[in-house]
């Protein structure tokens, strides 16, 4: 079939297998040229098909030859419908991993469910015996509770007051004022249910109970803080409260892991164009400015480079830890000079100058690339088979 980008609201509902492969291959190439070493050899990555989870899988496999099990929630293509970008990314990743003789297997299904947790534990027991690192990198709009069956939906809303600020439509480049009403108590709770720490805790409890965590095993969950401009919609909003819950649960998990001499970490990462972040109002405009300012200062990093730096710091035992015990790999984004420049440009930005004073074009290109579109050396006019196999899928 001919595969073109198609949209529903903010979401691109098609993906191009060859373009997604290109995206993955470029990350692999970078890591092969910029090796990193690590003590973690058998890794479980929950949320491994796009964004930070995918980069974590690529960096650990090709950076130091780790064996990985990835848990993803993606859809395979058919003769008439494309699969998800995460499906194609995983197919491309596994193809290269197997070619280079690395162990890589993938479980596709709802990571929030007991069924997928049990399936993952069985696979660890059978193939790896134990894992020494668990990376938790889920971003999801909904979660079905494994015991009550209750379905919760996460919302991106401020708390207490309505939020008014500038935003941009990254398809038309129109800068406009947006107003988002405050979340209800129930919406706040539902967002915590989805994006808070309960599921991460359940994973670690079940892995411990099944005795599949190596002595000294660690776990890392990814979080975000960001600047004051986005506080009302991010850090002080519904998603921020959920992130606080995730961060607080690391303390509990840390205590539980003490019995095997392990540790739980939160890594606060940089803002990036991903499927999740492009859906947050105000954030695309902020990322467009961030990209411009960081590139001008020679500080820019994509997901692969962030994760590369995270594990380099781990290996050297020189993690940048803040007063709340979190690893701060977002230090370059949060630098005072970077944020001061963004604040200034934020006041000035309008529809007329958005292309000049921000990297909105880059944001849009990067967004399309997430779905495999916009690569010069992929022929989008050529008939392409949307049905692609993931070799080691369970
Ligand atoms: P993403 O949307 O690119 O990736 C999310 C992953 O979760 C995908 O692999 C998806 O398949 C998987 N997933 C979602 N629901 C699932 C389910 N029920 N079962 C199994 N897998 C499921 O997101 P991302 O931006 O890489 O975010 C990952 C983490 O990093 C999140 O915790 C996010 O808050 C954090 N983070 C993101 C940014 C950013 O700017 N994107 C910055 C800092 C931290």
- Principal-axes geometry comes out as globular
Secondary structure category = alpha/beta
CATH class designation of the domain at 7-158 and 186-276 and 303-332: Alpha Beta
Number of helices: 12
Give the mean pLDDT. 96
- Here the CATH topology of the domain at 7-158 and 186-276 and 303-332 equals Rossmann fold
Radius of gyration (CA) equals: 20 Å
**What is the fourth-level CATH superfamily of the domain at 7-158 and 186-276 and 303-332?**
NAD(P)-binding Rossmann-like Domain
CATH architecture type of the domain at 7-158 and 186-276 and 303-332: 3-Layer(aba) Sandwich
Report on this model:
This protein is of the alpha/beta class and 394 residues long. It has a domain at 7-158 and 186-276 and 303-332: Rossmann fold. 41% of the residues lie in helices and 16% in strands. The strands form four sheets. Strands 5-4-3-6-11-12-13 form a seven-stranded parallel β-sheet, with helices on both faces. Helix 2 (51-64) links the parallel strand 3 (42-46) and strand 4. Helix 2 packs parallel to helix 3 (85-99) and helix 5 (185-195) packs across helix 7 (238-257). It is globular and about 60 Å long. The protein starts with 6 loop residues before the first strand and ends in a 24-residue tail after the last helix. Bound molecules: nicotinamide-adenine-dinucleotide (NAD). Nicotinamide-adenine-dinucleotide is lined by residues 47-53, 71-74, 86, 110-112, 137-140, 222-224, 269, 271-272, 274-277. Residues 3-78 form the Trans-2-enoyl-CoA reductase-like NAD(P)H binding domain. Involved in the fatty acid synthesis (FAS II). Catalyzes the reduction of a carbon-carbon double bond in an enoyl moiety that is covalently linked to a coenzyme A (CoA). Its EC number is 1.3.1.44. GO terms for molecular function: enoyl-[acyl-carrier-protein] reductase (NADH) activity; NAD binding; trans-2-enoyl-CoA reductase (NADH) activity. Residues 321-383 form the Enoyl reductase FAD binding domain.
């Amino acid at each position: 079939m001919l595969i073109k980008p198609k949209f529903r609201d903010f979401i691109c509902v098609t993906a191009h297998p060859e373009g997604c492969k290109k995206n993955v291959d470029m990350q692999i190439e970078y890591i092969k040229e910029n090796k990193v070493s690590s003590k973690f050899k058998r890794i479980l990555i929950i949320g491994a098909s796009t964004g930070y989870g995918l980069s974590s899988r690529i960096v650990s496999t090709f950076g130091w030859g780790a064996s990985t099990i990835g848990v993803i929630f993606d859809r395979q293509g058919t003769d008439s419908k494309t699969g998800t970008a995460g499906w194609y990314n995983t197919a491309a990743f596994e193809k290269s991993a197997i070619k280079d003789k690395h162990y890589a297997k993938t479980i596709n299904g709802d990571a929030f469910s007991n069924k997928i947790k049990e399936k993952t534990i069985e696979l660890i027991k059978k193939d790896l015996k134990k894992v020494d690192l668990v990376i938790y990198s889920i971003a999801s709009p909904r979660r079905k509770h494994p015991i009550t069956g209750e379905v919760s939906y996460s919302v991106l809303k401020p708390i207490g007051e309505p939020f008014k600020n500038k935003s941009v439509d990254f398809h038309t480049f129109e800068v406009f004022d947006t107003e988002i009403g405050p979340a209800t108590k129930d919406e706040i709770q539902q967002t915590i249910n989805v994006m808070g720490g309960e599921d991460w805790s359940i994973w670690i409890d079940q892995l411990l109970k099944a005795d599949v965590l190596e002595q000294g095993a660690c776990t890392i969950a990814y979080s975000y803080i960001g600047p004051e401009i986005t506080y009302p919609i991010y850090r002080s909003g519904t998603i921020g409260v959920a992130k606080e819950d995730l961060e607080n649960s690391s303390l509990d998990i840390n205590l539980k892991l003490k019995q095997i001499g392990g540790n739980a970490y939160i890594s606060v990462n940089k803002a990036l164009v991903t499927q999740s972040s492009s859906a947050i109002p105000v954030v695309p405009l902020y990322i467009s400015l961030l990209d411009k300012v960081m590139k001008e200062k020679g500080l820019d990093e994509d997901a692969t480079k962030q994760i590369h730096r995270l594990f380099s710091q781990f290996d050297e035992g020189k993690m940048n830890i803040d007063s709340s015990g979190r690893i701060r790999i977002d230090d370059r984004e949060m630098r005072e000079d970077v944020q001061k420049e963004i604040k200034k440009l934020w006041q000035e930005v309008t529809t007329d100058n958005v292309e000049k004073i921000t990297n909105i074009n880059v944001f849009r290109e990067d967004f399309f690339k997430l779905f495999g579109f916009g690569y010069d050396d992929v022929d989008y006019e050529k008939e392409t088979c949307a049905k692609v196999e993931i070799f080691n899928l369970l």
